[in-house]
Amino acid sequence: MPLQQTPRLLSIWTSRLPNTAKSNTNGSLSGLSMAVKDVFWTTELPTTAASKMLRDFHPEEDAECVSLARAAGACLIGKTNCDEFGMGSSNRFSHFGPVLHPLSSDRLAGGSSGGSAAAVALNQSSFALSTDTGGSTRLPASYCGVVGLKPSYGLISRYGLIPYAESLDCVGIMAKSVHTVNRVFDVLSQYDEKDPTSESTELRKSAREAAQSVRQSTDTWRIGLPEELFTSKPSDALSEVLDTLIRKGATDGKRVELYQVSLPTTTLALNAYYVIASAEASSSLARYDGMRYGYRSESGSIHDTREEGFGEEVKRRITLGNLVLSADSLDNYYLNAQRARTEIVNDFNGLFRMPNARTATDAVPDGIDVLIHPTAVSGPPLVDSHDAADYAQDLLTTPASLAGLPALNVPIGVDSQGFPQGVSVVGQWGCEQCVFGVAKELETANASVGGV
């Protein structure tokens, strides 16, 4: 089913430049056009977070990731629609209206970065910047059939990103190929003193060197299939791709070995994620009172300003966040969620044969290089489905988010209704090159068997 450009294209953008903004034409991203999710500061265009609250906000500088991409030659073409403040898995919660799926007006592109995914899928841009808090890059990438990266937490600067949940928010990258995503990542992955969560140059180097040492000392790619993250048997398309890799080996000459592994505490991830993310959102969004900037109600009261300025989903999550941080609920909900998060990190660290440089955890000598699992539990959300079903879409993506690990969606075939489906490649912290390596092998094998 080929992607078609239609009048629905208008739902992708919140604003566009009349002419492509010029950048340095001699950089490593020279000739690439860039769409930017409307949660990043840009000087030429407003940054609204798809919210009435910020509909007239005009930043005075570009976000660091936007600035780096433009300095490397990328040309900004516009800002993409998203769920308000990045809160949603479907892209139905936007002040500008929902982003519909490129293949069907009955389906949504997925969220919260649906506009970025649709822009890439419809060849409106060479790549797009997005965000990923609990799956907001990987889910729409899977639904729309594009490559989408959530990098290791702290590798790409979040300076100039309007926050949702600060211990989880990551800058995401989407493109049609793993190669392009890798190119953009190499430009953006730099230490930034303006971002207090940016990890040091030394820690990045330590993670890279550890991964390189493991890869150079082995003749295999060891891939783990976590049983808890396969809600059903692997799709026929994924099975065929994996069979091809096992039979033929990787293009670098290494053998490919599959192992069934277990991540028992990942069953706690979805609940822990919503508790932690909502708690952090209630804190992050407390600044929007209409006094210094942003929307202000006619009455001028803070209550009326927030009631009118925020959409219903944002208000729901703020209410939940306030509840779990209250004195009566703090231990039962928030602290338990943080304990679960620690257990999830430990589960992941117990699988990889690369050490976790960020948590100073030793490697497992007979461990795996990467994990592979489906990105989404089902196809693109229906426009008229009940929004309660949206929350379950994050089931498979939240574990890597809570652990701060790199995760990359790769399109592999289509589902029974003809919609794209993807698999996630998850690696140890700071080991993006291992993730890219396996993802490229999947991409090549998928093409060799006639996959979409």
Automatic annotation (TrEMBL):
Biological process (GO), any one: mitochondrial translation
Question: Which top EC class applies here?
Answer: ligase
Q: Which reaction does it catalyse?
A: L-glutamyl-tRNA(Gln) + L-glutamine + ATP + H2O = L-glutaminyl-tRNA(Gln) + L-glutamate + ADP + phosphate + H(+)
- UniProt keyword annotations, A-Z: ATP-binding, Ligase, Mitochondrion, Nucleotide-binding, Protein biosynthesis
Q: Does the keyword Membrane apply?
A: no
UniProt keyword Protein biosynthesis present: yes
For this protein, what is the EC number? 6.3.5.7
Give the primary localization class. mitochondrion
Query: Can you tell which superkingdom this protein's organism belongs to?
Result: Eukaryota
**Which GO-annotated molecular functions does the record name?**
ATP binding; glutaminyl-tRNA synthase (glutamine-hydrolyzing) activity
One Pfam family name is Amidase
Subcellular localization(s) per the UniProt record: Mitochondrion
In this chain the Amidase domain maps to 19-433
Q: Name one GO cellular component term.
A: glutamyl-tRNA(Gln) amidotransferase complex
Q: What does this protein do?
A: Allows the formation of correctly charged Gln-tRNA(Gln) through the transamidation of misacylated Glu-tRNA(Gln) in the mitochondria. The reaction takes place in the presence of glutamine and ATP through an activated gamma-phospho-Glu-tRNA(Gln).
Membership in a protein family:
Belongs to the amidase family. GatA subfamily.
Q: Which HAMAP family match?
A: GatA
Q: How does it assemble?
A: Subunit of the heterotrimeric GatCAB amidotransferase (AdT) complex, composed of A, B and C subunits.
Put simply, this protein is called Glutamyl-tRNA(Gln) amidotransferase subunit A, mitochondrial
Q: Which organism is it from?
A: Wallemia ichthyophaga (strain EXF-994 / CBS 113033)
